[in-house]
Design brief:
By secondary structure, the protein is of the alpha+beta class. Helices cover about 35% and strands about 25% of the residues.
């Protein structure tokens, strides 16, 4: 399969989905709850349908897994991991921090990633072995090497109020050590911002493959490092992730490993 075809379909899908998201902002989205704090809107579903339909028509032998439940089975070895609206809570409140995220695997290996921010018209793309880009300009992670100079990002699970593993302890540790910690609300964009050098590191505990697929490839292709919380290889089936510019990685792992 020519990567050019995958890139073309992903770009068109993201742009169509982005248009749906922008149009939906002008209306009041219909909100449902998958959990106490886990939202889904009618716009999530419309965006997902647009992406899945295009892949179905253009690449019918590709598998597709989407956040809101769309599943397409293919026999080509290619699998698309799609978050049609990453940052749904932000979106539902009209807060303009959300994205469309598309990752593509070949036989289990990530080969392509795309994250589109329709508000800023920022298109992040990455191809394995070919680098990461923002609107066609090559990305490079930051050169920040000490925690007091670092700006980090993280997120919290929907069950933060009742879960024992809720990231609050880690958040406090990093707040005391880093220059700052942000919680924007779109993990896909957070990872892209690490790749772009806007953030120096990112960690989170309870993500899904479609949250991380495109962004994790973005970080590694921009010269950064992605692992699990113990420094081992990160796989998409593991919901825990640490991403950094590489220079801060070992220090981030040490903070995460502290007993208190």
């Amino acid at each position: 399969m020519d990567i050019d075809m995958i890139r073309m379909v992903a770009l068109r899908a993201a742009k169509e989905a982005g248009a749906i998201l922008r149009q939906g902002l002008e209306q009041k989205p219909t909100i449902e709850f998958k959990g106490v704090k886990n939202l889904v809107t009618d716009i999530d579903r419309r965006s997902e349908e647009a992406i899945a339909d295009l892949v179905r028509r253009k690449l019918p032998h590709h598998s597709v897994v989407c956040e809101e439940g769309t599943r397409l089975e293919g026999d080509s070895g290619y699998r698309w991991l799609v978050d049609p609206l990453d940052g749904t809570t932000n979106y539902a409140h009209g807060y303009p921090c959300f994205s469309v995220s598309i990752g593509v695997e070949k036989d289990g290996e990530l080969i392509f990633g795309l994250v589109y921010d329709p508000n800023l018209e920022e298109l992040f793309t990455a191809e394995r072995g070919a680098g990461a880009f923002l609107n066609g300009k090559r990305l490079q992670v930051s050169a920040i090497g000490t925690m007091p100079d670092a700006l980090l990002a993280t997120g919290f699970p929907n069950d933060v109020a009742g879960a024992t593993q809720n990231n609050l302890d880690y958040f406090v540790r990093f707040m005391k050590r880093a220059q700052g910690v942000r919680r924007p609300g779109s993990a896909a964009l957070d990872l892209c911002y690490v790749a772009a050098g806007r953030f120096d590191g990112f960690w989170e505990l309870k993500l899904y493959p479609w949250d991380m697929a495109a962004g994790s490839l973005m970080v590694t292709e921009a010269g950064g490092r992605v692992t699990d919380l113990r420094g081992g290889p990160h796989v998409l089936s593991n919901p825990q992730i640490v991403a950094s510019n590489g220079l801060l990685h070992e220090e981030m792992l040490r903070v995460l490993a502290m007993e208190s």
